[in-house]
């Protein structure tokens, strides 16, 4: 079975920042692959490379068996794309934009598009400029799916949409995967991703921290709370293949997020000098994401609910 997307050591350097730093992943047909990351993590840059709009500094990428750098038009014919702010001609009507787009695709596009628009209850004679954001998103999705693409790429598609429209988007993603097609979803809406994704990738500052099936990822991650009789006590090193995603000291407790923690490791840790107790608990996908990107599950006392982006994130977002 041929992979729909492959990325091998993809690097993208802009002046002042590295948007991607050695990214590797493979996406198989019939799956919903979710790329999670903060604003500025490099998600949009990844999509621009996949669709042939950006040539990587180094590394290789294939989409539907093609190199987007060498065959950009053929790649775009075989994929559908929806962004958070779809670029639609405001002066056209809903019907006209479907007719216009159909000229670039094989026969059958217009019929499928019109069927989708009717299902969404959007009048064909209504001008694009008079549509709500949710209706524009539905038009964009209808255009992206009318040629039945092998791959659907979604870049923050539900940003700013009402709950009903977001639910429609999510349900359509599951339907696509069930029909054997593939969905690549870029988002930072963790709860939405958790409902539809088969595989999760977490991108942080241009590097992939994790790529794993959702169920395996959640089962492999553990939060440890290690109680100490003295804050200065050193605990044993967590041996490989376990990986410590974050480690913080809170008074007489050490809190760690560990991937692939084993019962043998628990026994070794609990019997160490100065350790008075070790407790474990599973993590939600949101907590896993925070641990991988922030390096801590604790919110600083002075931090606001929604912190501004760091200067590095701002520079990377501008580049992407």
UniProtKB/TrEMBL annotation:
<dbReference type="InterPro" id="IPR027417">
    <property type="entry name" value="P-loop_NTPase"/>
</dbReference>
<dbReference type="InterPro" id="IPR003439">
    <property type="entry name" value="ABC_transporter-like_ATP-bd"/>
</dbReference>
<feature type="domain" description="ABC transporter">
    <location>
        <begin position="5"/>
        <end position="230"/>
    </location>
</feature>
<keyword id="KW-0067">ATP-binding</keyword>
<dbReference type="GO" id="GO:0016887">
    <property type="term" value="F:ATP hydrolysis activity"/>
</dbReference>
<dbReference type="InterPro" id="IPR003593">
    <property type="entry name" value="AAA+_ATPase"/>
</dbReference>
<dbReference type="GO" id="GO:0005524">
    <property type="term" value="F:ATP binding"/>
</dbReference>
<keyword id="KW-0547">Nucleotide-binding</keyword>
<protein>
    <submittedName>
        <fullName>ABC transporter ATP-binding protein YtrB</fullName>
    </submittedName>
</protein>
<dbReference type="InterPro" id="IPR017871">
    <property type="entry name" value="ABC_transporter-like_CS"/>
</dbReference>
<feature type="region of interest" description="Disordered">
    <location>
        <begin position="297"/>
        <end position="320"/>
    </location>
</feature>
<dbReference type="Pfam" id="PF00005">
    <property type="entry name" value="ABC_tran"/>
</dbReference>
């Amino acid at each position: 079975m041929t992979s729909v997307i492959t990325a091998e050591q993809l690097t993208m350097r802009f002046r002042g920042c590295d948007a991607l730093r050695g990214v590797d992943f493979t996406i198989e047909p019939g799956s919903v692959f979710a790329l999670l990351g903060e604003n500025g993590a490099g998600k949009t840059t990844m999509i621009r490379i996949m669709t042939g709009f950006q040539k990587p500094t180094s590394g290789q990428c294939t989409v539907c068996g093609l190199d987007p750098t060498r065959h950009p038009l053929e790649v775009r014919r075989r994929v559908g794309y929806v962004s958070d702010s779809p670029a639609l001609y405001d002066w056209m009507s809903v019907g006209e934009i479907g007719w216009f787009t159909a000229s670039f695709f094989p026969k059958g596009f217009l019929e499928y598009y019109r069927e989708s628009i009717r299902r969404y209850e959007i009048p064909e004679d209504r001008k694009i400029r008079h549509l709500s954001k949710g209706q524009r998103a539905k038009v964009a999705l209808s255009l992206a799916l009318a040629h039945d693409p092998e791959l659907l790429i979604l870049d923050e598609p539900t940003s700013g949409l009402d709950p009903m429209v977001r639910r429609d988007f999510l349900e359509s993603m599951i339907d696509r995967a069930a029909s054997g097609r593939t969905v690549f979803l870029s988002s930072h809406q963790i709860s939405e991703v958790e409902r539809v994704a088969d595989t999760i990738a977490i991108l942080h500052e241009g590097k992939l921290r994790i790529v794993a099936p959702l169920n395996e990822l959640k089962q492999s991650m553990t939060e440890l709370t290690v109680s100490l009789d003295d804050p200065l006590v050193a605990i044993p090193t967590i041996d490989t293949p376990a990986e410590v995603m974050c480690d913080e000291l809170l008074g007489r407790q050490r809190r760690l997020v560990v991937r692939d923690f084993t019962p043998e490791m628990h026994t070794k840790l609990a019997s160490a000098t100065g350790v008075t107790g070790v407790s474990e608990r599973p993590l939600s996908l949101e907590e896993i994401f925070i641990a991988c990107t922030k390096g801590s599950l604790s919110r600083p006392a002075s931090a606001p609910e929604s912190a501004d982006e760091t200067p590095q994130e701002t520079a990377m977002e501008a580049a992407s």
